[in-house]
Design a protein that fits this description.
It contains 10 helices and 13 strands. By secondary structure, it is α/β, with parallel strands linked by helices. It folds into 2 domains: about 20-185, 3-Layer(aba) Sandwich (Peroxisomal Thiolase, Chain A, domain 1); about 190-340, Thiolase/Chalcone synthase (Peroxisomal Thiolase, Chain A, domain 1, 3-Layer(aba) Sandwich), CATH 3.40.47.10. A 5-stranded mixed sheet has the order 1-7-6-4-5, sandwiched between helices. A 4-stranded mixed sheet has the order 8-13-12-11, sandwiched between helices. A two-stranded antiparallel ribbon has the order 2-3. Helix 4 (about 105-115) links the parallel strand 4 and strand 5 (about 120-125). Helix 3 packs across helix 4 (about 105-115) and helix 7 runs parallel beside helix 8 (about 270-280). The termini are far apart.
């Protein structure tokens, strides 16, 4: 006799909406200005500003790690959401700079905030990691697997920066941003998300050393293999193309036009990229939230920090449609439309 498939305890429950009910962020105290960098490598404030839009970035202390910054951002988000850490079912930490290869940085955060019942894992999607994690969280919540998910983007990029390479060392900074996701009755929350990858371009933005392919040894320790390697022109071209396509795709999925969007929060990598996207979308740059002049590129943390600042400053308000779009190594990209 053919067996009938057993029904899942969740199969009779309708999919539900997912909202961001609280945000938080943290950036280190130390400010590294363009003038500071000009004393370290052959560069200048004018050279950096005109090519990137970055004026300064934050640098974590030597004994301050990704998990420390992630924890502080998480506690801020928990406080704003008005929940307890014990209510969190899942912790996702998007990062390219984990404290160690294992255990997951999310496990370290869980212990420090007291989220005793949460499952934990890290998400590795470079600069696109935070929105990848938001989509993962949404799937867990809409399927009734979990009620409350903590999503964090956190990076200590200065720990993998080659301070002799003026083309990359001027770009990156440290920090963390966090969001609490949960169903909120009467709100649409996350309306649509698009994620994508293209591994054929993996070699234009990567860190070659430190994995099983190229372990760091005494013989290669001076070759900067454990630092960021980037082909700037190729990354620029791919970033503009991918972020523009991702923005259009997610707007189409959401049934909205760019005119419906109150605020665009892009990946904070380069002002030229943001301006190119604004021009191609035919939207005023004033509708973009930009903070890269103060923080530089903080990878997975960038859009999360910007989201928290836009939220707390009143830049986005209840009922606003918000478009977030990111791009990173892999190559990876993602876009999300949220009704705030």
């Amino acid at each position: 006799m053919k067996r009938q498939p057993r029904s899942s305890p969740r199969s009779g429950k309708p999919r539900r909406t997912v909202s961001i009910i609280g945000t938080g962020s943290y950036t280190p105290e130390k400010v590294l200005t363009n003038e500071d960098l000009s004393k370290m490598v052959d560069t200048s404030d004018e050279w950096i500003t005109t090519r990137t839009g970055i004026k300064e970035r934050r640098m974590a202390a030597p004994d301050e790690y990704t998990s420390d910054m992630a924890t502080k951002a998480a506690l801020s988000a928990i406080e704003q959401a008005g929940i307890s850490a014990e209510e969190i079912d899942l912790i996702l930490v998007a990062t390219a700079t984990p404290d160690m290869l294992f255990p997951a940085t999310a496990c370290l955060v869980q212990n420090r905030i007291g989220a005793t019942k949460a499952a934990c894992l890290d998400v590795s999607a470079a600069c696109a990691g935070f929105l990848f994690a938001v989509e993962i969280a949404q799937q867990f919540i809409t399927s009734h697997t979990y009620e409350t998910v903590l999503v964090i983007g956190a990076e200590k990029l200065t720990s993998i920066t080659n301070w002799n390479d003026r083309n990359t060392c001027v770009l990156f900074g440290d920090g963390a941003g966090a969001a609490i996701l949960r169903h909120r009755g009467g709100a649409h929350g996350v309306i649509a998300t698009h994620v994508g990858s293209d591994g054929q371009y993996a070699d234009i933005l990567f860190m070659p050393g430190g994995g099983c392919r190229t372990p760091i040894t005494c013989e290669n320790a001076d070759q900067h293999l454990q630092t960021i390697h980037m082909s700037g022109k190729d990354v620029y071209k791919q970033a503009v193309t991918a972020m523009l396509a991702a923005s259009k795709k997610v707007l189409d999925q959401a049934g909205l036009t760019i005119d419906d969007i109150a605020c665009v929060i892009p990946h904070q990598a380069n002002l030229r990229i943001i301006e190119a996207i604004a021009d191609r979308l035919k939207i005023p740059i004033e509708r973009f939230y930009v903070n890269l002049d103060r923080y530089g590129n903080t990878s997975a943390a960038a859009v999360a920090i910007a989201l928290d600042e836009a939220n707390r400053s009143g830049r986005i308000k209840a009922g606003d449609y918000v478009l977030m779009v990111v791009f990173g190594g892999g190559l990876t990209w993602a876009s999300t439309v949220i009704e705030w």
